[in-house]
């Protein structure tokens, strides 16, 4: 979590760093800070709260001149989010300044040592310890900043993406990475450093992504030199040409990123299958699967590891893989999997699903599975992300940047990729007939149009949202393929509107949750025609007889549920296994509208961050 950004070049650093922080705010927004070098001295300003608060403060506080600057937006780990704990942090002499994304786990021991040597600390952060450790190395060993950073980092345990500046050497910024992402944008005689490429996309398409355990000294008028932190060996930098454009990371007329991203789903899904699904030829091409077909198709078992919404996509995939490719699947929370002693063999394929590709627990789960001999396959959205690099093979989702903290298009594109993979494996193994395979491809092609149709219920959903916005609780029920959708609907509601919500398999209701139902309780039920329809209708009747308020998501033209439910939201008909791609849409819109009506910060809900790079 946390976003870091830096600039060194010929332009004013202030607007670049500030705009960069706004773009990285999805990574954390407990506090924000900036340090600028005006040619003579360092100026710093930081505050609890958002980048907008920092901007207000900056206007009165410091001069914003200078061509070097670093900034930070924080998701608090050590120390409460207040002004003092905000980044950047100075060293005791005031010469060095640092920004940091990650956690230095042994900071306490290092701090005690430094205290004995006379260092004092203003904040409770691990980061202030690190910058003083670097200063101590410079003093003790009389080395340059780059070397000092390297020596200091070799004494730390933990994770970091850092940028360090020394006002006595104002032509360089030293950066390093272990476990948290760091990109270097390379322009004409100027450099950018950032947690991802969004802060510099309008200036350059060239980026170097540091690998774990690497550091770089970024110097004016010089080439970037990358070294391994452990042994100082030089690494050849690989220059990526970025595909990202500015429009993709702006709101494009929508009030919130989340709404924009909900509406982007038809395109995001077609971008995800385009070039892979060759309907006329009856083929699916996925290089990551094609190149490893024997290994994947002959797996004894798939183990899917993921967190949050990506875990829900994994649950949908469990149904699809078992249904279509007849491969046994287990779906695990990455955070639980990695701390057990899981039984994994060389015949297992571990599939890691992650929008950001940076989630620390998912990353650790893959490493563990690989150590035990499993083959690791990644389904990520962010190109070049850590998980996409750590896995043996993979398939990107092509959803485009997802900036709203609540995941929407990432979920549906993950399901799309996993469905393609299941179909491809099913065809290879002969567990799906050619005609069914062909029918799936044709139906998949119709999904974007059907999502557009589902989005037309927006106005109706807004009205439903108004009716239930003050409910303290909400229950979501679904069966089969739509059980994970119920979980996802509940997660969306709680994370952006702070209303307590629970998702349940509909049949489980009578084993406990039914006790919660009274006339105050809204129950969202997914009751599409394909998928245990009659059973779900019985569940709806059970709710009705206890006076619960029923909001049903049904197949177009359904009259039976309309008779029973208080509200019905229609989605077009499709194959059962593709229904999650449609039924998810009204649930996303419902939580969006409730949150807006309650005046919540939809794109940046409290306490959350988009990219969870801490364990
Ligand atoms: C919910 C949400 C989170 C993420 C989770 C995993 O809307 O966004 O639950 O799904 O933090 O993140 P990724 O997919 O980046 O690994």
CATH topology of the largest domain, by name, is Glutamine Phosphoribosylpyrophosphate, subunit 1, domain 1
Describe the biggest sheet? 8 strands, antiparallel
Give the number of DSSP strands.
27
Percent in strands: 15-25%
CATH architecture of the largest domain: 4-Layer Sandwich
Widest β-sheet, arrangement of strands: 3-2-4-1-10-9-11-15
List the total number of helices: 20
CATH secondary-structure class of the largest domain: Alpha Beta
Shape: globular
Please, what is the average pLDDT? 93
The total number of structural domains is: 3
Model description:
- The protein is α/β, with parallel strands linked by helices and 615 residues long.
- The chain has 3 domains: 3-248, Glutamine Phosphoribosylpyrophosphate, subunit 1, domain 1 (4-Layer Sandwich), CATH 3.60.20.10; 251-454, Rossmann fold, CATH 3.40.50.10490; 458-597, 3-Layer(aba) Sandwich (Rossmann fold).
- The chain is built from 20 helices and 27 strands.
- A hairpin with a 5-residue loop joins strand 12 (214-219) and strand 13.
- The model has no long low-confidence stretch (mean pLDDT 93).
